[in-house]
Amino acid sequence: MSPDVLLQISLSGLTTGAIYSIIALGFVLIFKVSRVINLAQGEFVALGGLFMVTFGTNLALPLPIAFIASVAAVTMVGIAMQRFAISPAQRTRGASMARILIITIGLSTFIKGAASLAWSKDLFYLPPFSGNKPIFLFGATVLPQHIWILGFTVLIALALALLLGRTNIGKSMLATAENPEAASLMGINVNMIVVISFAMGAALGAVAGLLITPITFTGYDRGTIIGLKGFVAAAMGGMGSTTVAIVGGVALGLAEAFSTLAGLSELKDATSFMVLVVILFLMSGGVLGKTRT
Question: How many helices (H) and strands (E) does the chain have?
Answer without folding.
Answer: 12, 2
